[in-house]
Records
---
Amino acid sequence: MAQTNLPTRLQVGEKTVNIQQRLGNGAFGVVYGVEEEGTSQVYAMKDILCLNVSAIHNANREASTLNKISHENVIAIVSIGHFYDGVGLHKLLLTEYCSGGSLNDRLARPSSDQQNLKWMIQIADAVAHLHSCNVVHRDLKADNVLLTASEDVKLGDFGLACEYIPLKRADVQLYHGSWLTTYTKYYMQSRIGPIHWVAPEFLRGHYTEKADDFSLGTLLFAILERDYIVINGKAIYGAFVSVPGRGKYGVGFAMENFDRNIRIQFSSHAQGSNALQRNVHELLKYNPYDRPTAQEICNHLRAIQENIGLGQSSTDSNEAGSCF
């Protein structure tokens, strides 16, 4: 990523903001905490440096994707702007600010079963909504799940997200001159993404929105198990397996490169009922067509939450929602 120095005061759409601090890096940009002049409202601003036409296309795609999504657990875009300097074009995306930091950082500290279940439902609901809008995130990991001051989920960083077409139309001419319209399954092919959280088929470059469902499973596993690997001195939470003689890998990577029959296991110190853990296992299946959808998982998690709220015995709540 090219080094650049933004001015501390910028115009982003109709809002004038002042940069307060650097918050971190996104898939294709740097994120800053900014304050609006006149209101003192705090936002997050993503600066995407565009050095070529492809980068401009990616930045416009991210803005377009965020604009079409409206959900309480997805980061909301506030304004869009741009800025030129001697390095290139900067696309500026102003979004709501999440003061609770990332879920990845939060998982280093204990949380209650009730809090865990809330996060799981909110993440699943957000992913289900994306899929209902024909959007695949492709970068689902704990670092991209942001938290508000009240620790509610806001799914962020749509730098790798793309729109997809579940069925692709094809018109075939028949021998007598007429045409027959057929529909075939559409597969995405880009392999750009974080290898430790992706589905096995993602690594083959032949996947659908079901790859997001697998990554959702790694997120839910991380919440209950709190397993991690260390990258550049930072603990990164996910779903990992130890391969004898090889090391520790994301479960999807291990399935695709070593043994498709590898299965993730919860340890004795993992949180959550048997029903919660079984729902996670269903998402982490090798065959994408064997996985439930994000919406189905969300529905089952809500059922578990409702049964707990009704005060069922622990035995009953352990079985609630396990309908697979």
---
Amino acid sequence: MPDIADLTPPDDGSRHRIDVHHHFCAPQWLEWAEGQGLVNRKALPPWAHWDSAAALDLMDRTGIATAVLKPMLPARYATSAQLREATAITLRAAAEVADAHPGRFAFHAPLFLDDPEVSRWALRRGLDELGAVGVNITANYGGVYLGDPSYDPLFAELDERSAVVDTHPHNLPGPGGGAGAGGGPGPGAGGGADAVRGQGTGGGPRAGGGPGAVAVPGIPNFLCDFLLDTTRAAVNMIHKRTLDRFPNLSVILPHAGGFLPHIATRVQAFAGALTPPVDPAMVRDHLRRFYYDTAGPMSPAGTLLAMAAPDRILFGSDWPACPAEMVTDIALPALAGDPALTPAHHRAINRDNALRLMPALAAPLSPAPAPAPARA
């Protein structure tokens, strides 16, 4: 007779997930921004109306034990002082959510790389004082992508703290597009000119490149352009050797790295065409040093695993930018049934990799309720 332990299915972490891609638009920020005349509450998309009850309901239904909040400040700010006030409200709100629900929530501090003073303040306030487990930044600011030397002073401060740097895409830089040219979880109020600050998950004065690239009518920017924005940022960081120059940083690429896994061989093959040229071996090295989250829903993991180790993949829901039904009915079943992933891979992706990356998340937790079965 087989031992009962042999009949117990392996623990795949699906009742103790850590979600590293949970968008957070603070209700306190929304009230303040409306009072300042910065937003029209009714005009904002559904993902801008976050509340803890809905978050916990989704988390309990999907086995998410802990969600790491990605702050969103989707408005146009006229001054650095106004941006700093918006950031202060958001950080305080995120800390209050974490305190009110021990073990269920953590948060990143939003930085604005084209506003170094506000960024340095947010870094100190978030990481050093309030206990943020990382920082969140946008892939490009006014067309200046992550990896650009102009961001080195802030990256040096982050490197000194061995910070987790969570990224998120935005509208592509370039003419055309305009406010509302696609919408989605990053742009918030849409495009904007040089006065646009704090859009998306942590944008700055020209977050996402101002108006954005020319849009394709009927195709929202987040569907295709956001994936390219992440890919551009990743390739620029490879080109500028960001992870060599700041070796203590841990950089998370959202949405499974955008298009990066699918063009990894192409990037290596044409590394010599970059200016200056890059060794293909260095490209391969960087591809394996990034972290990648599953928010999306992501494509089957086989292509990603061909360039990234399983210990570099993190679970992400993308809620509430990704509707609850899409998380429960599409993303989770696809992840659970992915033929490239073993039970050990699932446990690493669902929980263990995030714990190793952000040890502060290891506070004692009660298991989340068993996830609801997917609908037929």
